[in-house]
Hints:
alpha+beta; four-stranded antiparallel sheet; about 20% strand
Amino acid sequence: xxxKDDYQSDKRSGNWEPDPYHRHEQRWWSGVxxxxxxxxxxxxxxxxxxxxxxxxxxxxxxxxxTPISDARQPLRNISRYVPNLLLxxxxxxxxxFVLTLIAVFN
Length: 106
């Protein structure tokens, strides 16, 4: 498993370094910690807020993925009538539009 030192440079002044999280080409190393400033190509941006970056673990790809057993179920199941009701609503809207055109131009 990769240690913290594998992802941090010995440099104490700020510098653009390869992104240890592998989400962008480069990430700003302040000399103490990795910053939220990232660069891909010529565009500089901020890594999305609320994302807690974790270093990439190359050992996690050694074998097959383990199944997800604690995934949450959908909040609720959609009714089987919803597509039919959407189609009916669209047809009623279309009929209203056609009747409005007939009333206006006659």
